Amino acid sequence: LTQLFRPLDMLGMVYRTIRQGLIDMAEMFRLLDTEVEVPDVPCAPALVIRKPSIVFDDVVFGYEPDRTILHGLSFEVPAGEAFAVVGPSGAGKSTLARLLFRFYDPQSGRILIDGQDISQVTQASLRASIGIVPQDSVLFNDTIGYNIGYGRDGATREEIEAAARGASLNSLVARLPKGFDTEVGERGLKLSGGEKQRVAIARTLVKNPPILVLDEATSALDTRTEQDILATLHRVAEHRTSLSIAHRLSTIADANRILVISEGRLVESGTHAQLLRRDGLYAEMWARQAAEADALNEAAE
Ligand code: ATP
């Protein structure tokens, strides 16, 4: 009988692996424009993380052979630090996140996590180590508990509840008629943008990855909600290595280091204060955003 069940076990494992892959794909929804399969090298070992540092070492990449997007990008995020990536639209910020998740391989150069070349380890182990909190989270037509538990196969109810508390979703869940068993999504309860993002944060907490990629919210949220969510994200990022892709500079002023990318090159890097003193591209972007915010405030008055 055991002989009979072994293939079924295998099938179950394959199914779970594929499903986890799909979840991650869904999470990468905004970051991912095209699906390109990158194969694992034969007999690839799993990524083993003790100190989750990230290194981009002279990375050259383009989606098409005749158009280079990243022109020899190099930087290091030491384990446990919170870095932010900023730069004009089209600079290559999302591309960098896609490469870290290995949806594509660089044309030359290497990407290392804890000293291991990510192209030489299994994708399953790589993707299990990185949590993505996208700005537009995909919700499934199922219960809110299921949507949170999707972060990791086999998550227990206790883990789901703890994650909901960590993402400050517990007061919302307490108000719902069926609690964690309330249906959400298109055919159930519609959640607001901020609530959906909290579900994504809770999913990430269930997954408990050592590395976080945060695709920070744009104007979809009101300022108060945004501040609340940011506070939650900062709490979740503690004790992990994080890379925030920032669209609005106001949200990343307290990052350990800010990487300024322009046309696929690292043009400046430093803390918010250092970059302002430098009076370069970052200072210019900061001044422009401040002027825009002032204009909006005046229009509102
Ligand atoms: P934004 O802040 O506007 O999101 P970004 O810095 O994240 O911009 P990327 O999305 O990384 O920019 O895009 C960098 C460049 O790569 C852009 O010129 C874009 O047109 C191009 N690009 C992005 N995805 C693809 C793709 N799948 N195929 C071809 N070119 C692409």
TrEMBL record:
Location(s), subcellular: Cell membrane
Residue span, ABC transporter domain: 54-288
UniProt name for this protein: ATP-binding cassette domain-containing protein
Species annotation: Novosphingobium silvae
Residue numbers of the full-length protein present here: 306 to 606 of 606
